[in-house]
Amino acid sequence: MNNYLFNSLKTTFIGAILATSCLISCKPEEKTPQPSLTIPSTYDTTNFSLNTINEKTIKINFSDLVAEAKRGRIITNIVTESVLKAKYDNTSTYKIESLTNTNYKTIVTNSITELANSSGNNYIPSDTIPATGGVYGGYLFNKYGLEPEQLIDKGLFQALLYNQVLLIMSQPLTEASIDKILVLWGGTTQFANQDVTTKTTFPDVNVAKYSARRDKNEPSKPGYYLQIKNNLIKAKAAIKAGSQFNNDRDVALNEIKLLWEKSIASTVINYCKTSATTLSKTTKTANDYGSAMHALSENIGFLAGFKGIADKKITDAQIETILTLFYAPSAGPTQFYKYKTSTFDALTNLATIQSNLKAIYGFSDTEMSDFGNSYTTTR
Q1: Dist. CA 314–CA 296, nearest whole Å
Q2: Which is the most buried residue in 51, 63, 120, 376, by most CB within 10 A?
Q3: DSSP state of 50
Q4: In whole angstroms, what is the distance from residue 353 CA to residue 228 CA?
Q5: Cα-flanking dihedrals φ and ψ of residue 136, to 5°?
């Protein structure tokens, strides 16, 4: 073998060895697969009572304020501004006034004044605005036909309770954080998915009450209530399992926020439907008009309470469009009396409101139909 051929074979052989060595040594490192989160089937109640002392105080103070406002529905109960303001600016540990979203505080205080001014009077909705509001069809309305009690009650679902949830979510998260969110939502660790007190020892209240009403209680096809429950369990499990599961935690918390909002939006649709049915009667009584104006006043609170809160799907502009269709634009004038004096036009507006909410949240036709039901009364 001549030297040239020998050197050529030698070079080829060495190159092959080097190439093989590179294939072995240059092989990319295999990544360790991310472990999956183990989600328990039940909610962990460890230290729940201790973790939620402040939130339960908020809940009690809020309930006391609303209970005092509701007394005004009976004409012989005179509700005073001083008592209502004292309950709003409660002197116990957690003053609910100080926890209310800044944009909504004025609405609450103005509603307190209007409620007190209307207390003890009779009222009949009219295009000619009377001097004061009063009791009509079982509820206490201001002189424009809007129920101040509902701006206080349902508005604070968002401006107080949801506002606190967002504050908790913005801070370092612990398992206790999830307990607090559960209480502010209005649920219990029993997760009754029921607000009818004759059907459960642990009734859901506040937003959880309305999540339950929109939920068929079918675990294989969970509605808003069961989805929120599942995401609370998931978020707590993710926090307990460590920072490698922060993404699971954040996905669950974002779902809870959207489901809270959908619980409210679907209830607005429900009240539009039931009110339209009532207002479409050939013959209507004062109680018919009163119940419809009450339910629609709830809708004003539900939506207006979200205004000024950035972390939500619906925009402030979209809310304002709907409030205007409800005859209650933020800048006025409020014309809720039109539900009695211009019923045909009002019914047209209620249909438009439902279409707007359907488009904003992407509700299906089936969902829109289902929103006409209140499932906690039928199961």
Answers
A1: 19
A2: 376
A3: H
A4: 26
A5: -150, 125
